[in-house]
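Table S4 entry, Outer membrane protein beta-barrel domain-containing protein.
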Amino acid sequence: MFVRSLSLGVAAAALLVGGAQAADLIIPTTPQPIYEAAGFSWDGLYAGVQGGAEFFDGFTAGVVGAHVGVNFIVADPILLGLEGTAEYVWGTNNGVDLNRGEFFVNARVGAVVTDAVLVYALAGAGVATQENVDNRGIYQLGGGVEFAVTDAVSVRAQLVGLGDFDNNANNDFFDAAKATVGVSYHF
């Protein structure tokens, strides 16, 4: 009986000692950093290209161009921006060549709806240049929506009305409309 009690006591002590040693076992580990993606940043410099069409009364012309600008988030979610665009417009109307360049300086005011969506209004003034025709002052008013597709790339769709400062022929505020889609790289 004594041997049996002694055996049980030794076994119990061995189990308790083994458990205590396991609790003291030190394994070096490096904690994983806690990281949360910050979302797309609309602040800063961007540049890109766009293409689309200008719609006049009874005919359509093609548009291709480039843009460069800078955005500032002045108060969440309000964005203010300044953008320059240079576009080439081509087409003919009743045999008249309409090929010309259009250059604008635009102001943008927008709202960041989500980290990946920006809705904005645009107003700009510029000049239209055409061979054998005097340069003339033009303006555009409209808006658009821009979607972030990667950490640095966004796509946008924009619709503006175009007017001519020197147009005395008609009293319309807009002489044409322009619809474009574009891609921008944000630096």
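The mean pLDDT is 87.
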